[in-house]
Write a structure and sequence with these properties.
The protein is α+β, with helices and mostly antiparallel strands. Helices cover about 25% and strands about 30% of the residues. It contains six helices and 14 strands. The radius of gyration is 17 Å and the shape is globular.
Length: about 260
């Protein structure tokens, strides 16, 4: 029987101490997806007990090619908390992370609750604003190696996020060119269409998956809709930026030790 509380405590300590631990699969046996999401919720409960608040959700495996590669038929999701927020143009403390990577994304802010099975128009009607964004992912497992249950339990590797200037909800999210740079050099290029073919489809999935877990997406929450390209390692870099066509620019600088 899986010890939800014990595994959650281990993952929470690994995140707080920026110390990698062995992946759960192999130690405890393969984690069933429902157990993994229970562990994720328990990990987040530790943060909430320390004073953080829920501010949104993030989507993972939103690339159809990645899903095929991983043998998956659905996306995964994680929770965003207030202690994960880095201001646009702000400073990311490198010492808080183990082996951080960054990926370019599209974010939406909600103006109405969203949960369960919704159609495209209903999802779009709940959007208050859209923005370019960067997500810092940082697996708590050694060598960034994990099975599906491991990564879900680890909050889908989500660790920090940066959202650029908010734009009107009517801003077209289709085929936005994404160019991410580390220390001024372009490291990844892609398009918003890599996010399930249309980022709003990822919002629909977020409402469905969170709703199945009893969570309603709330007004004011941010939903990170998934990576538009592969993630890039931060290493000892000093800055990361994203140029996202009509959505504009977002970025941050990095302080603290190197990789």
């Amino acid at each position: 029987m899986v010890d939800i509380a014990d595994i959650a405590a281990r993952l929470d300590a690994a995140a707080r101490d920026a110390r990698a631990i062995p992946q759960i699969t192999g130690q405890e046996g393969e984690l069933a997806l429902n157990d993994a999401y229970d562990i994720q919720r328990a990990v987040i409960d530790h943060r909430l007990a320390r004073g953080a608040t829920l501010v949104g959700v993030k989507m993972g495996f939103t690339s159809e090619a990645k899903m095929v590669q991983m043998g998956l038929k659905d996306q995964i999701w994680g929770r965003l908390t207030s202690d994960m927020v880095v201001a646009d143009g702000g400073v990311l403390d490198r010492t808080r992370f183990i082996h951080p990577r960054v990926e370019p994304e599209v974010a939406v802010r909600l103006k109405a609750p969203l949960t369960g099975t919704v159609n495209y128009d209903e999802a779009l009607a709940a959007v208050d604003a859209v923005a370019p964004a960067l997500e810092v992912i940082d697996s708590r497992y050694e060598n960034f190696r994990f099975a599906l249950g491991d990564v879900v339990a680890d909050n889908a590797s989500s660790s920090a996020f940066v959202v650029g200037p908010w734009l009107p909800a009517e801003t077209d999210l289709a085929d936005v060119a994404m160019e991410m740079s580390v220390d001024g050099a372009v490291v990844e290029r892609g398009s918003s269409d890599a996010i399930l073919g249309d980022p709003i489809r990822s919002l629909i999935a977020a409402a469905r998956l969170a709703g199945a877990a009893g969570l309603t997406l709330q007004p004011g929450w941010t939903v990170m809709l998934g990576g538009a390209t592969a993630a890039a390692a931060i290493g000892s870099a000093g800055s990361v930026s994203l140029e996202a066509g009509r959505l504009g620019r977002v970025g941050f600088t990095i302080a603290g030790g190197g990789a």
